[in-house]
UniProtKB/TrEMBL annotation:
SUPFAM superfamilies: Ferritin-like
Pfam families assigned: Mn_catalase
The protein's name in its UniProt record: Manganese catalase family protein
Family under the similarity heading: Belongs to the manganese catalase family.
Region described as Disordered: spans on this chain: 250-287
Domain of life: Bacteria
Gene3D superfamilies xrefs: 1.20.1260.10, manganese catalase, domain 2, chain A
Length: 287
């Protein structure tokens, strides 16, 4: 059960309207790494978590906090749209400054949302549940969460640099600080789980079933050898099971694929007929 508290988690009040910036701010609301994404990701990870205790509780704690961040951003966007010149635009556009504002404003903010926020990104693309990850494996999910917070903090910091509005910057400084905490939180949780379950996901899959000859080989598939200087190419592996091997010229280990002709009813190109016409002989059975 959720309860709504009328006060925001932190102040979200701009110093003046700015419909162009409102459009930019949509990215960290409804974009791939926006607050709606992490809100839904953490909540579904928590709801789906089959391990009662601190991890489930933590997921629901932070997921619920992200609902508050969505509300903060929606409130800020709505206030940035207050006073936007949406009427008599032809007359207003005679002013070069207002014309520039109108040109950069998201028209849907006025036409569709009545000067309000929308669950879209800054290009108007609707938020998509495909942005979220809830696999049921906590280590895999927590690593995805760390990535989401890293990308989200990066975008909020970029938006901070794109405005001089003290009110907007104040709210963004709060979100940036929470992203700092959340990155540290996920790193701590990842380290804790790795200590008990190992660093490779999934931890309970028997490595005897994988092609162990290549389990720890870094293969150079590009020109040059700069990649050989990385810790991923030499020295002990991070799972503690082996030593990295650097392969300078990896050789093909599979067959040359030869596909048999498809059914005549599909009217595809007949590869055997083409081979005969080119003097290549008949096709060998697929290996």
């Amino acid at each position: 059960m959720f309860y709504h508290v009328k006060e925001l988690q932190y102040t979200a009040k701009p110093s003046q309207p700015d419909p162009v910036y409102a459009k930019k701010l949509q990215e960290v609301l409804g974009g791939q790494f926006g607050e709606i994404s992490v809100m839904m990701q953490y909540l579904f990870q928590g709801w789906n978590c089959r391990a009662e205790g601190k991890y489930r509780d933590m997921l629901l704690d932070i997921g619920t906090e992200e609902i508050g961040h969505v509300e903060m951003l929606a409130t800020m966007i709505a206030q940035l749209l207050d006073g936007a010149p949406v009427q008599d635009q032809e007359e207003a556009a005679k002013d070069p400054v207002i014309e520039a504002v109108l040109g950069g404003m998201n028209p849907q903010h006025a036409i569709v949302n009545g000067l309000g926020a929308q669950p879209n990104d800054s290009a108007g693309y609707p938020w998509n549940a495909r942005y979220t990850i809830a696999s049921g494996n906590l280590l895999a999910d927590f690593r995805a969460n760390l990535n989401a917070e890293s990308q989200g903090r990066l975008q909020v910091c970029r938006l901070y640099e794109m405005t001089t509005d003290p009110g907007v910057r104040d709210m963004l400084s709060f979100l940036i600080a929470r992203d700092t905490m959340h990155q540290n939180q996920w790193m701590a949780a990842i380290e804790e789980i790795e200590q008990t379950q190992g660093s490779i996901v999934p931890s309970n899959f028997n490595q005897e079933y994988e092609k162990q000859d290549v389990s720890y080989s870094f293969m150079n598939f590009s020109e040059g050898e700069d990649s050989s200087n990385g810790s991923w190419a030499n020295g002990p592996t991070l799972d503690g099971q082996a030593t990295f091997q650097y392969v300078q010229h990896p050789q093909p280990m599979g067959q040359k694929p030869t596909l048999q002709p498809g059914p005549a009813s599909l009217h595809g190109t007949n590869p055997e007929e083409l081979r005969v016409k080119q003097g290549l002989g008949k096709m060998e059975p697929l290996q």
